[in-house]
C-alpha cells in the first residue's frame, strides 16, 4: 500500500521529468541548424590572392552576422577548400561538399574553367551555385536555374572594353592575349563579337598556359603584329609579366583586361609605365558614396587590411546571401533562397543600385579602373 510520501516522490519525479522535457524542447528551438556553404577557390598557387581576398570579404560579413545571432538564429559556416585554380581539384572539393559536408549551397567559387568542370555535378544535384567569381556565358542563361550571379557577364565587360579602345582611344589594330582554357575562350569569343560590331578583326590572337607566366611567344607575336592595343585575358601575374616585358622591348600598346584579373594585384606588379584599363563589376569602395561602401570600410577596419574591389565583392556576396536568407523560413529552403536572391535586383535599394543599370534589359553596371603612365 502506497503512503503519502510515495505519492509525493512520484509527483516530484513526474514534475522533474516534465521540466527536463520542456527545457530540451526550448533548447532545440534555439539550436537552429547551421547554414553550410562550400567555397572552392585558389588558396595556393599564382592566383591565390584572388581566392584569399574573396574569402576574407565574405567572412568579414558572415562573422558580423554570426555575432548578431546569425540568420533567424542559424549560424553561417563558410567551408573553404583549396583548388589552386585547377578544375580537377574543384571537382574533388565539390564532391566532398555534396556528399560529406552536406552543404546548402556552393558559394563564391572562383573561375570559369573550374565552374565548367563541375557543371555536370551542378546539373545533376541542382545544388544552388551562388555568386561565382566569373562572368561566363553558360552561367548567365536560363538553362541553369540553380545559378545566381551578382556580377556582370563577360559579354558586358567585353563590349565596354572594345567601345573604350575603338570609340575613345581610336584604335583599329587590336590584338588579344588569351589564357588557354574555358575562361580565355569565353572572353575571347565575346571580344571578337564586340569587335565585329565595329567592323574590326583582331590583328593577332595569342595564348598562354593557365597558372604559368610563360608569355614570351605571345609577346613576340603581338609585337610583330604592330598591335596598338591589346586585350589581356588571364590572372594578374602573367599579365603583369607581359606588360613589364613589353616595356623593356619598347613595345607600349594600350591594354585592357576583365575584372577577374584583380586590378589591385595587377597594378601592384606593373613596374613600368603603361596605359591600362580594367573593366570592374563593383565600384572602388574607397571612392564610393553608396552606403554599402561606407559600411564595408567600417567592417574591414578591425581586420587591418586595405580595402579593395575583390574583398568588397566577397563582402557583397555575403550581404546578398544574408539579405535573401533572412526572408526565408527556418530551416533554410534552397528554393526560397534562390527566389529571394533573384528579387534583390527588382527593388530600388542601395544594394541593388550598386549593380542595376536602370535601363531596359538585364545588363548590370560596368565600372572602370585605370593604371596610367607617368
TrEMBL record:
Leucine-binding protein domain: residues covered: 34-345
The superkingdom of the source organism is Bacteria
The UniProt keywords, alphabetically, are:
Signal
Q: Does the keyword Cytoplasm apply?
A: no
Please verify whether the record's keywords include Signal: yes
For this protein, the record's InterPro entries field holds: Leu-bd, Peripla_BP_I
Give any Pfam family that matches: Peripla_BP_6
Where does the secretion signal sit in this chain?
Answer: 1-28
Family indicated by similarity: Belongs to the leucine-binding protein family.
Under which name does UniProt file this protein? ABC transporter substrate-binding protein
Species of the source: Pseudoalteromonas shioyasakiensis
Amino acid at each position: 500500500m502506497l503512503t503519502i510520501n510515495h505519492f509525493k516522490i512520484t509527483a516530484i519525479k513526474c514534475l522533474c521529468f516534465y521540466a527536463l522535457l520542456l527545457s530540451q524542447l526550448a533548447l532545440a528551438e534555439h539550436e537552429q541548424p547551421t547554414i553550410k556553404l562550400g567555397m572552392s577557390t585558389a588558396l595556393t598557387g599564382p592566383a591565390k590572392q584572388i581566392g584569399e581576398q574573396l574569402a576574407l570579404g565574405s567572412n568579414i560579413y558572415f562573422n558580423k552576422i554570426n555575432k548578431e545571432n546569425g540568420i533567424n538564429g542559424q549560424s553561417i559556416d563558410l567551408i573553404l577548400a583549396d583548388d589552386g585554380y585547377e578544375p580537377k581539384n574543384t571537382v574533388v572539393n565539390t564532391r566532398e561538399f555534396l556528399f560529406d559536408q552536406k552543404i546548402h549551397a556552393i558559394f563564391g567559387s572562383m573561375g570559369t574553367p573550374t565552374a565548367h568542370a563541375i557543371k555536370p555535378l551542378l546539373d545533376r544535384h541542382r545544388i544552388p551555385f551562388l555568386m561565382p567569381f566569373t562572368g561566363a556565358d553558360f552561367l548567365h542563361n536560363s538553362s541553369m536555374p540553380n545559378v545566381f550571379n551578382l556580377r556582370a557577364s563577360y559579354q558586358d565587360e567585353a563590349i565596354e572594353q572594345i567601345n573604350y579602345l575603338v570609340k575613345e582611344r581610336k584604335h583599329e589594330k587590336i590584338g588579344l592575349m588569351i589564357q588557354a582554357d574555358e575562361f580565355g575562350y569565353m572572353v575571347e569569343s565575346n571580344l571578337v563579337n564586340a569587335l565585329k560590331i565595329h567592323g574590326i578583326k583582331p590583328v593577332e590572337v595569342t595564348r598562354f598556359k593557365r597558372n604559368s607566366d610563360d608569355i614570351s611567344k605571345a609577346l613576340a607575336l603581338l609585337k610583330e603584329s604592330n598591335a596598338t592595343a591589346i586585350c589581356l585575358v588571364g590572372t594578374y601575374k602573367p599579365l603583369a609579366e607581359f606588360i613589364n616585358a613589353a616595356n623593356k622591348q619598347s613595345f607600349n600598346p594600350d591594354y585592357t583586361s576583365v575584372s577577374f584579373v584583380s586590378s589591385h594585384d595587377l597594378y601592384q606588379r606593373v613596374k613600368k609605365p603603361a596605359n591600362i584599363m580594367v573593366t570592374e563589376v563593383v565600384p572602388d569602395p574607397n571612392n564610393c558614396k553608396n552606403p554599402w561602401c561606407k559600411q564595408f570600410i567600417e567592417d574591414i577596419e578591425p581586420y587591418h587590411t586595405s580595402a579593395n574591389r575583390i574583398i568588397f565583392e566577397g563582402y557583397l556576396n555575403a550581404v546578398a546571401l544574408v539579405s535573401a536568407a533572412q526572408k526565408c523560413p527556418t530551416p533554410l529552403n534552397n528554393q526560397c533562397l534562390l527566389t529571394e536572391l533573384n528579387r534583390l535586383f527588382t527593388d530600388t535599394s542601395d544594394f541593388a543600385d550598386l549593380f542595376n543599370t536602370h535601363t531596359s534589359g538585364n545588363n548590370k553596371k560596368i565600372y572602370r579602373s585605370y593604371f596610367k603612365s607617368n
